[in-house]
Amino acid sequence: MRTEEETNITNDHRLSTIDSDIIGYLKEHENKDMLRFLTCGSVDDGKSTLIGRMLYDSKMIFDDQLAAVKGESKKYGTTGEKIDMALLVDGLQSEREQGITIDVAYRFFATERRKFIIADTPGHEQYTRNMVTGASTADVAIILIDARKGILTQTRRHSYIVNLLGIEHVIVAINKMDLVDFSQEIFNEIKASYSELAEELGIKYTYYLPLSALDGDNVVDKSEKTPWYEGKPLLELLDTMDISQKQRTEDFRFPVQYINRPNLDFRGFCGTIAAGSVKVGDEITVLPSGKTTKVKNIINAGDITEANREVVTEEAYAPMAVTITTEDEVDISRGNMIVHTKNLPRVSNSLKVMLVWMDETPMEPGTTYDIKRATSVVTGNFEHINYKVDVNTYEREQIGKLGLNDIASCKMVLTQPIAADAYKENRLTGSFIVIDRITNNTVGAGMIIGVSRREEDVKKLSAREYTDAERALNQYIRENFPEWECKKC
Ligand SMILES: Nc1nc2c(ncn2[C@@H]2O[C@H](COP(=O)(O)OP(=O)(O)OP(=O)(O)O)[C@@H](O)[C@H]2O)c(=O)[nH]1
What is the whole-number distance in angstroms between the Cα of residue 146 and the centre of ligand 1? Predict the structure, then answer.
C-alpha cells in the first residue's frame, strides 16, 4: 500500500499525455531526432545517480517506479533522507546487493527537442566488454570524474575505449563538485589534465562540465554555485549539440539482408541502407562478385505484396529500409553488399582489425570462427596478433593469445573476401562480431582498420578451381536445398 505522501509525489511525475492521448504522445516523439549516449566512470563516480536525476527531472519516471524507489532508498540507498537516484537506474537485484553496476542498462528519455537512449555501462575493468557493447552505438560519451579524485586509471581506460569505438563527442562531467566547495581551481586542474589525455588519444570534441548529480547542479538548470562556469548545463548541452556526421552520398552501402522472390516475375533485394543514397538508374556493383548492373526500381519498406509492389521511390538514403530491383538478372545473395560502381570499397579476405575479446575461453590464432559483418557471415580466423593494447597505459604488448576483455590489433583472414570499409568511415559496415562455431556464442567484437593484403591475392582466392566432386556437391545442394541460398561455383 502506498502512503498518501508517496502518491502525491508520484502523480507529479505522470506523463499526462500518455494518460490522455497515447497516439498524440507517440506522434509528438516520432519526428524528434535521436541521440544515443553512454555514461562511463569509475566505481561510485555517480553514473547511476546522474542518469536517475536526468530521468527524474525530465519526468520519465513512472509513479510505481518512483514509489518503489522511495521505499528502497531507505533499505539500500546511500543518500540518507534524499531519494537515491541511482536506485531508479540500477535495475538488477544482484547489483543492488553488491552495490555495483554489472550489465549495460539502456534507458530512454526525451525532451521537447530530442529523444535520448542512455547506455549505463559498468566501470570495472572486468566489464570492458559491456562497455564496448554500450559504446558501439553511442554518438556521445559522458565520462564522469569524481572531483575529489581527478583522472584515474579507469578514466584513461574508458577514454581509450570511447575513442576506439569512434565516439567523437566526449562530455567530461566533473561530478561531486559539492564535495569540493564548487572550486573553480579544482575544475580547471582536472580540465587541463584531461585535455592532455584527449590530445594524446585524438578525441575530436570535448566539453567540460562541473556537476553535482546528487543535488542536480548544472544537470538541468545552470547552478548558482558555479557562477564561473560559462557553458550550458548538461541536458541543454545534450539537447543542442550537433552530432550529425557528414555523409557522402556517393558512398552508398547496401548490405543485402533478404532476397524476395514471391514468383518468377519478381526478384527484389531487401535491406537497410547503411550509408549514402541510391537513385533509380544508378550503376551498381555487387560485392564480392564484382558483377555490375543498374537500379531498376526502389520500393519502399514494408511487406512487398502484390498491391504495394508499385509503391516506388526515385531515391533512397541511409537509414531507410528498401527493396531494390535490378535491370539485369545478376547473382545476388544474402550477405552481399551493393555499392555504386563509381565508388568501390576495397574488397579483401585479409584485414587488419582491432579485436575486443569477450569470452572466458581465450582466442588462439588459427582457430576458425564465424565472422558476422552487417548481413554476411563468413568463416575465418585471426592469423596473427600484432599487439595487445594495455588500455590503462596505452602501451603495446606482444602476446600469444587473447584473454577476456583484451583489446588487440590482429590480422584477420576470411575464407571469402568482403567489401571492407574502415570502421572510422562507416561504423556499420566496418564492424563485425566473432561467433564460436560450436556454442554459437558471441565471443568477440571487432573493427576493421584496413585491408592488409594486396588486391591480386583476393582475385586469386575468388578464382579458385573446383574439382568435379566439389562442383557436383555444389549442384546437389543448390537443387535440393534452395533455402540455403548456395552460390554456384
Ligand atoms: N555528494 C555527492 N554524492 C554523490 C554525487 N553523485 C553521486 N553521489 C553518491 O555517490 C555514490 C555512488 O553513486 P552511484 O550513482 O551509485 O555511482 P555509480 O558510478 O553508478 O557506481 P557503480 O554503479 O558502482 O558503477 C552514491 O552514494 C551517491 O549518492 C554528487 O554529485 N555529490
Answer: 9
Residue nearest to atom 24 of ligand 1 (CA): 100
Residue 56's pLDDT is 79
Mean pLDDT of the chain: 81
Domains and CATH numbers, the chain: 31-240 (3.40.50.300), 253-340 (2.40.30.10), 346-452 (2.40.30.10)
In tens, the pLDDT along 278-335 reads 999 999 999 888 889 999 989 876 545 555 556 678 888 888 888 999 998 888 888 8
* Beta-bridge partner residues of 134: none
The residue type found at 141 is: A
Helices 153-164 and 128-135 sit at what angle, rounded to 10 degrees?
A: 40
Which H, E and C letters describe the chain, residue by residue?
A: CCCHHHHHHHHHCCCHHHHHCHHHHHHHHHCCEEEEEEEECCCCCCHHHHHHHHHHHCCCCCHHHHHHHHHHHHHCCCCCCCCCCHHHHCCCHHHHHHCCCCCCEEEEEECCCEEEEEEECCCCHHHHHHHHHHHCCCCEEEEEEECCCCCCHHHHHHHHHHHHCCCCEEEEEEECHHHHCCCHHHHHHHHHHHHHHHHHHCCCEEEEEECECCCCECCCECCCCCCCCCCCCHHHHHHHCCCCCCCCCCCCEEECCEEEEEECCEEEEEEECCECEEECCCEEEEECCCEEEEEEEEECCCCCCCCHHHCEECEEECCCEEEEEECCCCCCCCCCEEEECCCCCCEEEEEEEEEEECCCCCECCCCEEEEEECCEEEEEEEEEEEEEECCCCCCEECCCCECCCCEEEEEEEEEEEEECCCCCCCCCCCEEEEECCCCCCEEEEEEEEEECCCHHHHHHHHCCCCCHHHHHHHHHHHHHCHHHCCCCC
For residue 213 and ligand 1, the question of a CB distance below 6 A is answered with: yes
ipTM of the complex: 0.96
Q: Cell digits for 468?
A: 568435379
Burial class of residue 479 in the structure, from the number of CB atoms within 10 Å of its CB (0-12 exposed, 13-18 middle, 19+ buried): exposed
With contact defined as beta carbons under 8 Å apart, do 429 and 418 qualify? Answer: no
CA 38 / ligand 1 centre spacing (Å): 16
Ligand 1 center to 128 CA (angstroms): 20
- Whose CA is closest to atom 26 on ligand 1? 78
With a 6 Å cutoff on the Cβ, whether 86 touches ligand 1 is: yes
Q: Please check if 333 is assigned to a binding site.
A: no
* 185 burial via Cβ count (<10 Å: 0-12, 13-18, 19+): exposed
CB-based contacts of 420: which residues, under 8 Å, 6+ apart? 345, 346, 347, 348, 351, 430, 448, 450, 451
